[in-house]
Model the fold of this input.
Amino acid sequence: MLKVLLVDDEPFILQGLKMLVDWEQEGWEVFTASNGAEALDFLKEERVDLVIADIKMPVMSGLELLKTVHDEKISDSYFVVLSGYAEFSYAQEALRYDCTDYILKPVEREQLLEILTKVAALNKERDFKRRSDAKREKAFLDRTFMKLLSGKFNRGNIEYVSAIMDTDEDMSYVEIQLDVETLSEDYSDEEKKGQLDKLYSSAFDFLKDDSKFCIMDVSDSEKIYDVGFIYNEAMAKRLQLTREEYLKSFLDFLIANTNLPITMLVGKNVSGIKNISKSYGTVNVLRSLQGFREMKNLYYYENEYKISDTGVLICKKELDDLIVAIERGERVEIRKSVDNFYEVMQKTGVTESTMNLNINYLLFQLIHLASELDSEVNQEEILRMISENTSEEGKSRGSKNHLCRMAYAYGEYLTQLRKNASKGVLGEIEEEVKKNYASNLTLKELSEKYFVNSAYLGQLFRKKYGCSFKDYLNNHRVEEAAKLLRKSDMKIYEVAEAVGYKDVDYFVNKFIDSKGCTPTKYKKNL
Done:
């Protein structure tokens, strides 16, 4: 409902204006004031879309009210004055103060309705412009934050951000990650993006005025769906909370309001916006370490990557032997090297910080090996997925058994890369889809059938076809369904079942996504 404030010192005129039109039906909520001063006090407290005020009133006239509101920028409401013929010169003066229009007394119903229609249109146009301006401003701010996160910023970027935040405060980069691997396999890329939109919207609801520090889809990885957030200490201080308490309440709110699987990665605390790229870099490290940590939904860089004051030991010889064994795919040597590594760690007095640093060394060396064989796919993401897929439920991640299983799997992966297994396997999978599209095909089962690592196969598939395997399979099924609709008299549920969909509603939604109409309408249009 739009809001209108009627201002006149004569009660019967106010009553007449209220009775002249059905305000509620026209979309207006009515408020009244008996003079300009009373109206001014009201405008200071309430947002109003339109003021209709008499020109001549005691205490403060309508013209004085308009001048004050205009000069002191008290309200952005549209203003219409009521005047008699003898007061027409006053009405002309009012127009110089951005008065929207004037109405001559006695007020006629059609004239008032015309004014209301005009103001409603102006208000709609102004709101649209505000939203457009806000979107452009947010997009520019997001681009500025991205420059700061990458470390490629200039003085102008700092000056721009300093207008909305204290750039010298302690702050951290926070990645709020949608755990897409735990979502149903039926989720397409578009549906995952829809879930990310839901997460982004919920973050806005929690952050309110601080939502400007939220950025959609920061990571450049096609497998990661994330919302970036630049936290500064003032946010927690306003609520008399610590950083940990504030971020925990933020995470709890997101989980409760989206019912989505979410992980929050909190980067290193840094001093000032100029150093935020360092915090962003530590979040990227945290993401790689996830596969070697106990699964939880909140990670702090400082907790996961501690280094003691006494220094740490890197078991370089043992790890280099392990890397060579992984590269050769020799399982016996892998097990022997893992045993040697843990034996040395125990002798030196293993600590969390020592283990973390050694695991980091191993991970980066393995990523380097794979990148030399194929630099076009995201090797960090594949390593993380291999690590997660080789961990057993109830068993500690990063344990000796986990490290051993991961090393076996990674050795097999490197062997596939050297054989360049992708050359023929994608063609074979295409044929598999053509023949068995109605079956419950999954990328995992196909990777096992053709002896290709599933994470690598998924990235190769996306690189060639520009979509996930699930979307490719859905698109093929829809095309086959369209053929059946064109060439047979099968009912919709029969077509759905024939192409591999047990849920008819799900089939209809996928058909609409692809063809822009329902299967029934598609058949009629033929």
About this structure: The chain has a mean pLDDT of 85.
